[in-house]
Write the structure tokens for this entry.
Amino acid sequence: MHAVLTLLLQVGVILAASRAVGLAFRRINQPQVMGEMIAGILLGPSFFGWVAPHLSAAVFPAASLNALQALSQTGLVLFMFLVGAELDPRLLRGRGEAAVITSHASIVAPFFLGSALALYLYPRLSDDSVHFTGFALFMGAAMSITAFPVLARILTERNLIRTKVGAVTIACAAVDDVTAWCILAGVVTLVRAESAPRQLPLTLGGSVAFVLVMLFGVKRLVAHLDVYYRNRGRVLTQDMIAVVLLLMVASACVTEWLGIHALFGAFLMGAILPKGGSFVRDLTDKLEDLTVVFLLPVFFAFTGLRTRIGLIQGTEMWVQCGLILLVAVAGKLGGSTIAARATGLSWREAGALGTLMNTRGLMELVILTIGLDLGIISPALFVMMVLMAIVTTFMTTPLLEWIYPSRLIREEADGEEGGDGYGVLIPVSLPSAGPELLRLARAIAHGAANVRIYALHLARVSEQSLLDPGVAPSGATEIGPLEPLLRAASAHQMDVQPLAFVSRDPGSDITAVANAKGAKLILMGWHKPVLSQSILGGTVNIVMNEARCDVAVYVPRRFDPWRRVLVPYMGGVHDRGALDLARRMAGRGVKTPGQTAFEWGDPHVTVLHVVPPGRGDDQPRAGLSSAASVFESEGIELKVVESDAPLEVAVREAQRGYDLVIVGVSEEWGLEPKMFSGEHERFAAECPASLVIVRKYVRPDRTDSVKTNTLKAETPAPATAA
Amino acid sequence: MTTDRHRIQPATPEAPELAHRSLKRMLVLYVVLVIGPFIALLGILRIGRGITPPISVGGRWVLTAALPAGQGTACLGLEPSDARLAFSISQSGRQLAIKLGDSGPSSTRGELDGTRVRALVPQEEATGGAADACPGARGLRIESWVDRSTDPVRMTGELRAAGCSSCATLPFSAELTSSKG
């Protein structure tokens, strides 16, 4: 077959397998990269070559592997450049003595144990073409590596990033990464010098000179590039990308020529890029998809093609493999845990830190590839170490869930954040919707004491976000989509706490955050979905069903001041929730004289109470009378209509020039929260005014109290203690 | 953010001592958890220098054998074109994976014992019609000794058909053309 066709076929097979297995692993809560690594192994002789040797030989003929290797190495160079670019020097300092000791111990402990294991493995799995020193140091370095990108992603997904454990772990991982790469550069130099001793002075001298040039020369050059980028209105042109890539290639060539490795040059080039601005983010955004989605799977596949699990034969070799795994876990997990515990973390926190640090993932494969290429490790040892990398990465998520369950994280957050006052959580999906939601929150919460407003942005888990685990340089997730809302809050001198993190399941995460923050109300926006007309479907449905607080969905139709507000009412529990909100907006009870929520004054609220014909007698009538007098005192107008068709009545009333309609979810109003349906949302479809749909939370032990449908003057709790 | 003034305590005479004690504790921890293992690592490197690993035989070899004319070597599964046969050895300690020629993904296992290399190429891997010539043949047995005093490194030994006593052994020599292939 033609060489190009063969390569294209190979890439196609690799991409398909990588996506499929990656998705399968995400379903079992494993990082996608874990699945991609496994896909690579499956494509190699250990599975594909074993199940269908002839087909495997046809797809991956030995003669064609040079092209695949070149593609794989290019991917690695780009990947290491991105790893360097994502490295934030601020993570390396200022985390206190505990982090220093923990990070150093988390390197030294596995390094020591790895080297000690080398005493046993060297005579069994190596040969005299490798000196013991190089072999032992390499084993130490390979044992002490941590997969920083995977680790950061797990921290973010589990909302551990802002915890003490998260902060110390991310600092330790960053220190580990830099240290391990420096050690590895030293090992590579040493090993190469053993075969060519005359090269050593050139390598050492050249490396020092190169680093100095990069730090004091090239770094300034790229800083100028950053200035140019900002002056151009933060537009990253193709010319600028080309310049940076050229510098990266040059840097990689120099380190390769010096006898270290091309990867170190690429990493260093990434590391010296100016951090803190959007230059690096824009650059990595442009390069990341191609690298992570296209080139890295090729690297995994190429690694898989070299991984022959069949090389591990006999009990002795499997024992050696088990020993490697044991030492790797004991060194990294055990060492980090003990160090973290000794410096003051609880056993649970220390265990979580150790578990996270034990994640080796892709970075281990990179190191092992270097070792195999240089002949430092033998093919069988390579296979054993690859298996160790896979097992340690795979075990991270379940072990972490066992040591530090999500439930516990939420409970701890509950303990910290719950409490008094009126908390409103505003999940923001569309940035432009933020200010309108804030306006509504202001209207509802005004006058209440100790109002806490949280703005939440949940970034969907990106399939390929291996390098961008939602961790901004400062360790915080991006809050860019909340900026319009925060600007509006600032203009009204309101204190809003922004929250943002990556989410696999926005519906459940919104309710979890609301619980954790002790919110009394979740205020959601609505924008027309692509595949559905439903307002109360999808995420809204999940939140309405799972939230342990009131939920309001705002459907904006017009952006006028809310001067006239309508509340259709039939007495259902959710109608009462709607009435509560309307009364809050009307400024009931808690304001000081003259205080209003808005420049245009408090809105005029009309309650449209629809009762079945002939039911306006006796006790209900007495209740209405009582309610009317209370409402009158609050400036709320009460309209009572007897009708069998409440929906028709409400729609007709809503069409009489109201600015806002607040309505409870119920069958009577044609508003039922369903996962996949827009059929029952007639009221929403025909109401010309902006709409707030309310679902009131009823504690399970109080369900009996919601059966009454009589409008009483039982007032919602005063806003001060709502 | 609020600050509770009442919680701000004036500095006590014990404060410097507490700080000193904390620093001392951290230093002790650092010595135990970091410097200690680091020094032990130096000891390991020293001990390791005395370990003798297996000799290196990995790489690409070219075998030269004086194949007799006619059917003399049919039972070995070799053909006249195999007079200069390339093979590669992938080494993991004493375990060897030997691949004959460039074709096919599979390789056969071998073992290194000192300077002696032993391997059995199974029947299906052996080239030619060994099975026809000798029905009981299980494959091609390789036994050789590596001599690293020469440059390039040489291996001399013999090939014989396993399970076929009637088949003559064939002496061969091989040269290492590139190491760790």
In short: Confidence is low (pLDDT under 50) at residues 468-477, 589-597, 675-679, 703-722 of chain A. Chain A touches chain B through 48 residues (CB under 8 Å). The longest strand of chain A covers residues 451-460. The radius of gyration of chain A is 31 Å.
